[in-house]
């Protein structure tokens, strides 16, 4: 499955270029965790999303979750202002999306990347696996990437630029991605 290869490349580059950030990431989700989340959300995860979560469930440990923010995640990855969501964070944002009820947000969109407020991020469309993005106050963009694998390929390209020193606003300091 191409999403597994793409994510594995991202993890290899992160381990190589930002080993402290890589070491912080948790292990995989289980099929039971996915099934329970799908039941609570009332929607089936697309195969690419399932495959990715079975590699890394990027939820923060319970003791690090801040209930005062809409979403929690590993700061600074994949960029300065947003982070990948784990299963719990996906569920929370899916259930309480700030654009829900606006007519611009669709039930078939599962957020997988967000800022802390839930005002901006990326989603996967369960109908066709395409990746879109939202920003509160704007019309969501669908089809920004053809697949989760294509999006992860773009993250890998960014990490490659960070590693070779050619990224304009990110470098590595003490094994962590540092955004300027």
Could you please describe the fold and organization of this structure?
With 180 residues, the chain is α+β, with helices and mostly antiparallel strands. It is built from six helices and seven strands. Strands 1-2-3-4-5 form a five-stranded antiparallel beta sheet. It has a two-stranded antiparallel sheet with strand order 6-7. Strand 6 and strand 7 (176-179) form a beta hairpin. Helix 1 (2-17) runs parallel beside helix 4 (47-53), helix 1 packs parallel to helix 6 and helix 3 runs parallel beside helix 5 (87-95). It is globular, with a radius of gyration of 16 Å.
Short structural description:
By secondary structure, the chain is α+β, with helices and mostly antiparallel strands.
The count of DSSP E runs of length 2 or more, i.e. the number of strands, is: 7
* Arrangement of strands in the largest sheet: 1-2-3-4-5
What about the largest sheet? 5 strands, antiparallel
Radius of gyration: 16 Å
Q: Given the helix and strand composition, which structural class is it? A: alpha+beta
**Amino- and carboxy-terminal Cα gap:** 35 Å
Helicity, in percent? 25-40%
Beta-strand content bin: 15-25%
Overall pLDDT level? 92
The low-confidence parts are none
* Mass-distribution shape: globular
- Number of helices in the DSSP assignment: 6
List SSEs in N-to-C order: HHHHEHEEEEHEE
């Amino acid at each position: 499955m191409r999403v597994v290869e793409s994510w594995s490349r991202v993890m290899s580059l992160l381990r190589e270029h930002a080993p402290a950030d890589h070491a912080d990431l948790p292990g995989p989700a289980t099929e039971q965790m996915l099934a329970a989340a799908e039941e609570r959300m009332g929607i089936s995860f697309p195969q690419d999303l399932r495959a990715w979560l079975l590699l890394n469930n990027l939820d923060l440990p319970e003791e690090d979750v801040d209930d005062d923010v809409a979403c929690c995640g590993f700061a600074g990855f994949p960029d300065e202002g947003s982070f990948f969501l784990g299963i719990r964070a996906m569920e929370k944002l899916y259930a309480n999306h700030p654009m829900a009820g606006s007519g611009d947000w669709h039930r078939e969109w599962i957020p997988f990347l967000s800022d802390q407020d839930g005002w901006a991020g990326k989603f996967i469309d369960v109908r066709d696996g395409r990746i879109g993005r939202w920003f509160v106050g704007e019309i969501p963009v669908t089809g920004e990437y053809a697949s989760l694998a294509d999006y992860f390929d773009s993250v890998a390209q960014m990490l490659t630029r960070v590693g070779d020193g050619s990224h304009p606003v990110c470098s590595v300091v003490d094994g962590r991605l540092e955004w300027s």
